[in-house]
Amino acid sequence: MRQVYAFLAGLLVAAGVAVSALAAELPKPAGPVVLTVHGNIAHSNRGPIDPFMDAFFSFGNVKFDSAVSFDLAMLEKLGMHKLRAKYPEWPQWVDFEGPLLRDVIRAAGAKGSTIRVFAMDNYGAEIPVAEIEKYPVLLALKANGRWLGLGDRGPAWVVYPRDQHPELQAQDDAKWVWSAIRIDVE
User: Which of 87, 69, 89, 75 is nearest to 147 (CA)?
Assistant: First the structure.
């Protein structure tokens, strides 16, 4: 029995070291920032809003003291997953690629129960963390093999696996935030 306890204690220590290492290794973006996560988070790689350099956030009256900024390479490093979706009004199926939304907020050390995902036009949708833990909701960066750019629903798009989970098919697309650039963890 002692061996079992010793083994479990060793696993807990290893998990703690892994989490600490993740926090310590959170790099600053090398490329252009495409997503900023702020609010109730444990990690950060940037400081508060700079009224001049963060003019877009300042214009939208966004405020935070610290945040995690992601470039595309950082988001890709979280693991690219694929999801095929077709919303009823769409002309065809779309093959999406990107990290799971839960992995993005985990990387930021999210401690809240709700996130609000905001688009460039400041449209925001509230999403329970329990929902993204239950379903593989994607933060799509690519559609049909192409990077999502500004003007074509990029840089990121929240995509639900509605075709793989029938209970999600009645859900409207209010949470499918496209042109997503910011997540506030509450």
Answer: 75
3-state class of 71 per DSSP? strand
> What is the per-residue pLDDT across 76-126, written as a single tens digit (0 to 9) for each?
999 999 999 998 889 999 999 999 999 999 999 999 999 999 999 999 999
DSSP sequence for 9-53: HHHHHHHHHHHHHHHHT-PPPSS-EEEEEEESBS--SB-S--TTT
Quote the CA–CA distance of 109 and 102 in Å, as a whole number. 10
Strands 157-159 and 124-128: unpaired
Residue that has been written with the tokens 């963060």 in this structure? 54
Q: Which residue has the higher pLDDT, 24 or 82?
A: 82
Pick the CATH number of 28-185 from 3.40.50.80, 2.30.110.10, 3.40.50.11090, 3.90.420.10: 3.90.420.10
Give the pTM.
0.85
